[in-house]
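Q&A log
Question type: sequence-to-structure
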Amino acid sequence: MSRAQLPPTVSAEAAAAAAAADNRPHRWPLTPQVTRWLRTKGAAEQLVGFEADRAARGVHVTERPDGHLLMTAESGDLVADDAWVLWIHGGGFCWGSARDGTGLRLAEGLARPVISVEYPLAPEARFPVAIDVCVDAYLAGVAERGPRVLLGGVSAGANLALGVLQRLRARSAGGADVPLPLGLVALTPFGDLAGEGDSYRVNEGRDAWIRWRGQQERFARAYAGRADLRHPLVSPVHADWAGGALPPAFFSSGTRDLFLSDAARIHTGWRAAGGAAELDVAEGLWHSYHSNPRLPESQALMGRLLIWCEERLSRPRGPATAPTTDARP
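Response status: OK
Response body:
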């Protein structure tokens, strides 16, 4: 992608990142054997990069007995309350790990504990295994740390966070004493695994990093397996958010994000159901642009997000709400 294709509002750093990006279709089949092999490519370099970022940000990372990571800022300015964050990484359901850079930035900026979930990846683990693991992590965290939790994720992780919320609301509607999160963060959510949104056509080939044909469509089917791609727990663009109050939500996207329609549709549904929600859309930016902390646009988004999160975490909990129907297969 050339700089000439980008609007002049995009920073020089973002233009350079777009020019170096690779959004070509994948030429390899998405089998478990091939996927496991591909995950090892560059894994050592990624770990070195994560550790360098962790040290620079002054964040301590501990692997918990359940396999999830606990991220805590090493600063002496830690907030002395019981609020915490459950964070779910992205990677098209097939890649990525709990060693997630956005989780580090949240731990540093909020000065509160962040539990980053290490969920099983597709195609080895198909829907709804990842949601099951994330729900268990949420409930275990509440039992251990208390109910003042912020729930969030990026891309596929945002999809899973929205699935967790659907499950929590269903349990609450069924009479279980399950606290809802203080807020929900969904950064560039992968919310339509059937690929029917307008941006899947308009931004095909314009998103600097991802495309639908020969790429994200394969990840969607690898994760969903035989499940209906329009099932609300598979594709939260189809979720019904009515039936009770919702936690406030923060959605982000970019005008060149392949999944821009997903963020817009979920945000609209959230507001229609009476929930408070913000939609932060960056001009000329692509899917998960915030994951590159060197971009001025990423830094600006993180600044806005940290303020929003702090406002949620510092408020006392209101009454729990919740009913919807869980359509768990």
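Response note: The two ends are 42 Å apart (CA to CA).
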